[in-house]
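The following record pairs a protein chain with its ligand, manganese (II) ion.
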Amino acid sequence: MIIVMQLGATDQQVNAVAQILKDHGVEPLILPGEDRVAIGIPQSLTPDQRENIESALARAEGISKISQTSRPYKLASLEFQRARTTVNVKGVSIGGDSFTVMAGPCSIESYEQLARTAEIVQKAGATVLRGGAFKPRTSPYSFQGLAEEGLKIMQRVGNETGLATITEVMSPDAVDMVASYVDILQIGARSMQNYPLLIKAGESQKPVFLKRGPSATIDEFLLAAEYLLSKGNRNIILCERGIVSIDRSYTRNTLDLASVPVLKNYSHLPVFVDPSHGTGVAKYVPPMAKAAVVAGADGLMIEVHPNPDEALSDGSQALLPKQFELLMQDLRQLAEICDRKMAAAVSR
Ligand code: PEP
Ligand code: MN
C-alpha cells in the first residue's frame, strides 16, 4: 500500500498518517518525492489490518490517494522509489547515466595473473576489477579458489591500480571478512536464494552485486534484492547472467536480455549483464555485451584472462586482452548513442 499525500501537505499531516499506521502495528516508510510525499507500507497486511487502516485513514487529512502496490517486492520497486538508485564506490558511479564495466579473471590465481589482468582491463576502460577467491564450482574436485590469500591479492591490486574491486562471498560467516578486503560483495547465481547470506550482506554497509539465480523468476530475483534492502543496505546492483537453457549444446545458459528492460521497468536498482556466464563461449561474449548496452543495461561484468588456455576456471569464456580492448571500443560508441557515459581508456 502507498499513501500519496496532497501537494503541500504539512509535516503534521504526514506525521499523523504515519502515527495511524504505527497504531496499527505497521512501520511506515516515508518516501519524499520531487513534489509530494508518499508513505509506503512495505509489509503485507492481513485483510483485517487493511480494513482498519483504511477506515482510520479515511478520517485523516492531507491524503491525495491510496494505491495498492501490485508486486510482492516493495523496497526494490519503482512504485516505492521513483528516483533510480546510483551506487558510488571508490570514485565509480554505478547507475544513472553511467555505463560501467567490471572485468577480470574468473578466479584469482596469483598476484602476477591478477595484476597483469588489472593492467589490461584498466587500460581499456574498465573501472571495477573482478576475480573470485571463493569459487562455487559444480564439482568438488575443480579449483575452489585461493580463499583469503586471493582476497589479499585482490586488495593489493586494487590499492596499486586504484580500481574498485568485487569478489564473491558464499557464506554468511564470511561476509565481514570478505567485506574487509573488497569494495563490492558479489552474491553468485547459486546463492541468490541463500537467505541467511542475503540477510548478513543486507546488514553490511558494502554495496552488493546480486546475480540472478539460474532458475529464478523476475519476482524471485527482486524478492532476493528485497531481503538485502529490508536489512538496510540500499546499495544493490542486479545482474542478469543467464538462466537454465533447454539446449546446453551451444551455450552454457540462456542470456535473458529481455529481463533488462523488464527489471528497469519495475525496479529503481541498476541492472548489469554478464555475457560471459550468460553464454559460456568467448566468441559470443562481444555480441551479447553490445546487445546489453542497447537493451538499457547500466553495465557489464566480463571475464578476461591474459592466457585463457591456462585459466584454472572458465577459460573457454574468457576474452583475450586484445578481444576485450576491441570490445571496449565498440561499447564506448554504443554507450554514446544510448546517452551513457563510459570511463575513458587510460594508460598507466
Ligand atoms: C562468477 O561471476 O564468478 C560466477 C561464479 O558467476 P555466477 O554466479 O553467475 O555463475
Ligand atoms: Mn566464471
